[in-house]
User: What shape does this take?
Amino acid sequence: MQLTLQTDISLRILILMGGQGLDRRYTITELADFFHVSRNHMVKIVNKLGKESYLLNVRGKGGGIYLAKKPKDINIAEVIRTMENNTEIIDCQKHQCIFTGNCKLKGIINQASVLFFEHISQYTLADILIDL
Assistant: This one.
């Protein structure tokens, strides 16, 4: 499984903000510059994280982007599931696989995905914070 750039940046934003405390405010431009992504891409990521209640996005004077929850209350697996549009690793219908019905690979891969999410569900943002 490979995470999308959106998910990767989302996790990095949460790590950055979690390490700075709940009171630290950021702007879209600061985040875009820090992570070397376009401002437009950052807007999409921050809006989705806000919509899912991971970030608090406040407009106007004194506004900015804040971490909306304590790091211990942000589960890493939930963030990944939220940000990824599709966590299915193999889509047998997409390429009209000739082995459909007889193949055991999809079941094995699906079980590995279940185990991945079971394992990563044990971790919160607090577990992966780093000192900056």
The domain at 5-128 is CATH 1.10.10.10 (Arc Repressor Mutant, subunit A).
